[in-house]
Design brief:
With 152 residues, this protein is mainly alpha-helical. The chain is 66% helix and 3% strand. A two-stranded antiparallel sheet has the order 1-2. Strand 1 and strand 2 form a beta hairpin.
Length: 152
């Protein structure tokens, strides 16, 4: 095993990589929601008057917490790359949209139109699952790329 968590062309634990990437998507969605909560809170304080701002949005504790959540999510995504291929992990990016669609109505009192949004979410889940299950066995390494260029 090398320092990146892979043995030659095979990754050590793709399930761990997928789990980390999915948790990162959840943390990212929560971070985005926290940042929007900061905007909503400041709008309530200012009674909807955009001109009268009591403090910059990026100083609000919710916004700072959301930004930290986004940073943690990116660290988790980077760490997940050690355990699974980029092709496999890229299919988990739309889970942020799925988590955001579920959590935003709960945390921000936004509307959720089940008739139009539920089929879309189901298609996203099915699409992500198919991409994860049907991952191609393609590994890009510097050695393989150099061999292909030299033999070309």
């Amino acid at each position: 095993m090398n320092s990146t968590g892979s043995v030659g062309n095979e990754y050590v634990n793709p399930a761990l990589g997928l789990t980390l990437a999915t948790i990162a998507s959840l943390v990212s969605a929560l971070g985005l929601i926290m940042m929007k909560l900061a905007h909503v809170a400041l709008e309530k304080i200012n009674h909807g008057d955009i001109q009268r701002i009591c403090m910059p949005t990026y100083f609000h504790p919710y916004w700072i917490l959301g930004f930290i959540g986004l940073l943690v999510a990116q660290i988790l995504n980077t760490y997940a790359l050690e355990y699974a291929s980029v092709i496999l992990l890229s299919s988990t990016a739309c889970f942020t949209i799925i988590f955001n669609s579920i959590l935003a109505p709960l945390m921000l009192n936004e509307s959720f139109h089940a008739r139009s949004e539920l089929p879309t979410l189901l298609l996203l889940v099915v699409g992500c699952t198919l991409c994860i299950v049907q991952e191609p066995e393609v590994f890009f390494t510097a050695d393989n790329e150099i061999r292909q260029i030299v033999n070309f």
